[in-house]
Amino acid sequence: MKVIMLSHDPTYLGSVASVSGSSVSVHLAKSIASGLSIIEGRTYKIGQVGSFVRIPQGYQDLFGVVSEIGASTIPDQLDYSDAETGKWMKIHLIGEAIGEVFERGITQFPNIGDSVHITTEASLARIYGLNDFGSIVIGSLSSVESIPAKVSLNELVTRHSAVLGSTGSGKSTTTASLLRSICNNLESESNYPGARILLLDIHGEYSEALSDIASVFSVDPRSGEKKLSIPYWALSSSDLLKFITGGVDGPRETAFTDKIFDLKMKAHEEIQFSGVEQSSITIDTPLPFSLKQLWYDLIDFEITTFVGANRDEPAKQQDGDVDNLVPPKYTPHAMGAQGPFLNTQAIGIRRQLNHLRSKLLDRRYDFLLHPGPWEPNAKGETEKDLDSLLEGWLGGEKPITILDLSGVPSLVLELLVGSILKIVYESLFWSREKSEGGIDRPLLVVMEEAHRYLSSDQNSLASETVQKIAKEGRKYGVGAMIISQRPSEVNETILSQCGTFFALRLSNPSDRARVKGVLPDGLVSLLDVLPVLRTGEAIVMGEAAKLPMRCCVRLPSEEHRPRSSDPKVAAQWSHAKKEEGYDRVVASWRAQNPRAVIRRLEIQREKVEDET
Amino acid sequence: MDRNNVASSNIASIGYDEHTQTLEVEFTNGSIYQYFNVPLALYEQLMNEGSKGRFLNTYIKNAFPYSRV
Predict the structure, then answer these.
(1) Contact A198, A443 (CB under 8 A)
(2) How far apart are CA A263 and CA A379, in angstroms?
(3) Which of A459, A458, A481 is CA-nearest to residue A469?
């Protein structure tokens, strides 16, 4: 009887026919046969997959999402002899609202015959529209544009997040928009001037888009950007050795580590770093030491020859030069009874030392091996210490710091990202009780193109460090945001630790399967729309979103969009060809610098008097 | 242990095991000696040397423990 009475209510959809777990079958009523329903002057489409329905239960309302809809196929256990329309839909229950407060999870199931209603704008606003402290507006719901899509900032940062989508689906715009929403949110009351965000920009897309709220460090700085340097001595010895020697083991590794330890000890004796106990220094303590000195001392030992009765007087002919990497000269050994004799204690690491020397001379690695003011002299003294490095990265005036890695050879990208993350995480981990630490000032690390350095098949420094952040970063206030177009290639541990997903258009089935696999809810059917999402449209789900929602990410204004838009083929090809100079192309290629020039023009600038 | 043949007046072949740092030398008269704790660098130097017999004499013979095999 109740059903008939309610059928005059325009929001009425039908009645509950069967309940099994959180899945509910609904029998649609005749009154909605048109597929359209007009409620309070607005038109609602009925039975859109992914839309929400409301099942009133007296004091509380249950909410569910439509996962399947059909007409001819009728659930076989049920007798539909008295069916009115033969149309049915399947709903997945997701939460309930008591009064104005919506919560995930349900306390009671609906009964057979309960009425099912369309969610109107007003009740959707009840689910999504809570204007509580700590939420940010990222755009608007796709179905109802007047309702802002909000995510909770706390969960977004601490439980980590991932932005996934094929190329051209709007990943970088979404990211730029998200970061902008956090830093200067005009619509919402809450504002976060103390936000601390570190963005690893692999393609150099963001520096212009976020220039007003970000400071930029670059390996190849333009005007207004600062130079990105990463002191090699802040890395752990095993990571550093792997890079500079090409891999060593056994007694050869010991030769290197012993010498590094020696040099670090000496540096501490010379400078007395604050907070460091002499007895607690290890090979991995981030103290400066000179790589050139390391090379010189080791090569000296390897090539020494001796004379004298006890074969212990060095037969040195000429001193070498530490700064220019010139080895010392010894009289070559001879086989006679007088010598000179070889150093029989030599370890046999000349090949590794040559490797180190060529790395030190290779200008591409300057940002790491010759890190500007952080490069130690032979004694281990540096112009600046790590504090100024961290202050630049983590304590800048602007809320976002962009580390532009676009000029980095792809060979070392992985090492570089790993080193940066390691330095940042270690410093925030150990300073967790200080006001600069991660608990008092949480940090969000945004990682672009994550599949390039967090791939699933290798245990690299970057991958290990991000795994650590993903697993325990929450406790120390370090959050990760992973951005990738190939989620199936990203390390699974890392992806599964992400609490919030922004899934943009994804067409590759294996990538889609990966996203579905890590979805914390049983709401997989929502993700069936992934291949047909519009550009800039995302499904947001997980911890930071109360409910999975399909939303249009707010488009930043034209000048604030990342430089990653597609080349305009038709427009560019419609111009007649201009005069071209491919010597410029070669110059750029050789210099590995998109802004390399063939002739440097010296422009004399003179002051001009204003005569007016 | 695998030994490589070498051109020398009194050494027939030389082998080296990196893990145990053992140098094995077969002399032209057929006797085989093993020298222990010989650093890799010294072995590499030996292999690069023109006169292997003299090198062995100068650096290895009375400097490292050995045993006849």
Answers:
(1) yes
(2) 8
(3) A481
Give, in degrees to the nearest 5, the angle at Cα A344 between A338 and A350.
120
Contact between A549 and A128 (Cβ < 8 Å): yes
Q: Is the dihedral of CA A286, A287, A288, A290 positive or negative?
A: negative
Does the distance separating the beta carbons of A346 and B51 come in below 8 Å?
Answer: no
Q: Which pair of tokens denotes residue A8?
A: 């005059």
Task: Return the C-alpha torsion angle A402, A403, A407, A409, nearest 10.
Answer: -140
User: Is residue A538 within 8 Å of A172, Cβ to Cβ?
Assistant: no
Return left, alpha or beta for A303; rule: phi > 0 is left, psi -120 to 50 is alpha, else beta. Answer: alpha
Distance from the first to the final alpha carbon of chain A: 91
Could you give phi then psi for residue A109, rounded to 5 degrees? Answer: -95, 155
DSSP strand E in A456-594: where?
Answer: 478-484, 500-503, 537-542, 549-553
Beta strands of A448-588 (E only): which ranges?
A: 478-484, 500-503, 537-542, 549-553
CB distance B41–A302 less than 8 Å?
yes
Q: Give chain B positions within 8 Å (CB) of A342.
A: 42, 45, 59
Separation in Å, CA of B11 to nearest CA in chain A: 17
CB contact under 8 A, A348 and B51: no
Q: Can you list the residues of chain A whose pLDDT is less than 50?
A: 1-7, 80-83
Contact A335 B51 (CB under 8 A): yes
How far is Cα B3 from Cα A20, in angstroms, rounded to an integer? 75
ipTM of the complex: 0.73
Using CA atoms, how far apart are residues A501 and A515, in angstroms rounded to an integer?
A: 8
Identify which of A323, A320, A279 has the alpha carbon closest to the alpha carbon of residue A301.
A320
- Closest chain B residue by Cα to residue A345: B39
The residue whose two tokens read 């333009």 is: A222
Sorted by sequence, the CB contacts under 8 Å of residue A150 that are 6+ apart come out as A128, A129, A130, A135, A136, A137, A138
Across the interface, which of B54, B57, B59 has its CB nearest the CB of A344? Answer: B59
- 0.90 cut: is pTM over it? no
DSSP state of A331: P
**Taking the CB of residue A382, how many other CB atoms lie within 10 A of it?**
21
Closest listed residue to residue A25, CA positions, set A60, A58, A55, A57: A55
What's the rounded Cα separation, in Å, for the pair A66 and A52?
A: 6
Judged by phi (left if over 0) then psi (alpha if -120 to 50, else beta), residue A185 lies in beta
> For residue range A322-370, what is the model confidence (pLDDT) as tens digits?
888 888 888 887 777 777 888 877 888 888 889 999 989 888 888 888 8
Chain B residues with CB under 8 Å of A347 CB are: 39-41
Contact A27, A36 (CB under 8 A): no
